[in-house]
């Protein structure tokens, strides 16, 4: 029993870390720059399908099956998703936040339709299987532990890199644009250029997370990238604290834990014939938790402290 608990704990943390990577990407776009992206599922899906096409075995049923190493698939996922983010951003980055949200939602719907209908590329509604999994030769326990360690390493490297970027002149410019775009422009900065860079980087990180999820699970389908994924990631970032990389990671673990807990409760207490409808309670639980967090801690668990507030604290006797 203890071995099973350890294996499940490693599985839980691995999935939570993949969501933490998506949250880190969203934190660059929204937390640092103020870009309201509600098409997260699209960029995650593009990364997952790109890596799957590059790394799966050869098949006559669809395009792809190049059998490349997993590392190449992850790199390709980040590049293709980043390129899509750049293309979308180049067309929409000048829009106001509400119009940008509508545009990115339209991109998510378009990608969803492509996944369903381009069967010769994506496998259609049946998805893509036989995706190579890291450490697949190990037994179940070691497989879970090794993947958990790998994802923890990826999260750590991204966290350290993004922390360095947030404290660099580039990160300070992003925050200046978020707070007052006109003032940043008067200082010689080009807001559109910096916003496009942030949007592209965030999308590339989301694509990397999609590839990591695909290779850990071993199967992807369009149903994995519904709008509820976007809702989950936004809830994670809000709960953890927008503008703070530690908050993005903590929020991902907490909200994913709530999601898994409610799923277990539905399986344990709801009759099998009613479980499909009762699964909506998971979204209700996250919504309630989100409302409580906004009421009790509007900035989240590790919300960003504004520079003015930090300055006023240092001046207090």
SS elements, strand count: 0
Order of helices and strands: HHHHHHHHHHHHHH
* Assembly annotation: single chain
Q: Separation of termini?
A: 56 Å
Tell me the overall shape: globular
Description:
With 317 residues, the protein is mostly helical. It is built from 14 helices and no strands. The mean pLDDT is 91. 74% of the residues lie in helices and 0% in strands.
Short recap of the structure:
The protein is mainly alpha-helical and 317 residues long.
Topology:
Blueprint: H1 2-32, H2 40-55, H3 70-92, H4 97-117, H5 119-122, H6 140-167, H7 169-179, H8 181-186, H9 191-217, H10 227-240, H11 245-269, H12 275-278, H13 280-296, H14 307-315
Quick tags:
317 residues; mainly alpha; 14 helices
